[in-house]
Amino acid sequence: MHSLRRALYIVLAWISFALGVVGMFVPLMPTTCFMLLAVWAASRGSPRFALWIREHPRFGPTVMAWEGERAIPRHAKWIASLMLALSILVLLMTLSLVWLKLMLVAGLALLGLWIVTRPEPGSTAAVRLVRR
Questions:
Q1: Quick one: pLDDT at residue 124?
Q2: DSSP letter (8 states) at residue 119
Q3: Least confident span in 38-47, 80-89, 112-121
Q4: Do 37 and 21 touch, CB atoms closer than 8 A?
Q5: Is the pLDDT of residue 86 over 80?
Q6: Of 17, 120, 16, 12, which is closest to residue 68 (Cα–Cα)?
Q7: Which of 5, 12, 42, 112 is the most exposed, fewest CB within 10 Å of its CB?
Q8: How far is it, in rounded angstroms, from Cα 28 to Cα 24?
Q9: Hey, how many other C-beta atoms are within 10 angstroms of the C-beta on 117?
Q10: Are 22 and 29 in contact (CB under 8 A)?
């Protein structure tokens, strides 16, 4: 049973990683949350894969900032905001059900607000030093 659980974590990690890569190119598909899920699953199934993601030049800094400080780098906030705005635009132009359109736009706007209000890496450490 232990090897089956480990295999399931590895499969989940690889699927999440693949979806995260797809999310770099497709509006409405997130990247960072899939990478965080991939690291979480890989940590339980393949620590070597988790380390590879953490050290990856494209995905690693964002994952490490979130794991270490619950912070989102400024460039990731910009990209996320741009993708959310694009997604909202696509929804506004394609959906005909007004109630569904309003709910999705409100949800994406709230998600965007949450993202931009997260601290940036290093800012929480600086605040702690100032308070001492």
A1: 54
A2: P
A3: 80-89
A4: no
A5: yes
A6: 120
A7: 5
A8: 10
A9: 9
A10: yes
Contacts of 69 (CB under 8 A, 6+ apart): 119, 121, 122, 124, 125
Dist. CA 105–CA 38, nearest whole Å: 27
User: Please, where are the H alpha helices in the chain?
Assistant: 2-23, 32-45, 47-55, 60-69, 74-94, 98-116, 123-131
The half-sphere exposure of 12 on its side-chain side, counting CA atoms within 13 A, is: 17
- Residue 8 in tokens: 């399931």
Instruction: Please tell me the distance from the alpha carbon of residue 111 to that of residue 91, in angstroms, as a whole number.
Output: 15
| Phi, psi of 76, deg, nearest 5 | -70, -35
CB 81 within 8 A of CB 91: no
31-53-56-80 Cα dihedral, nearest 10 degrees:
20
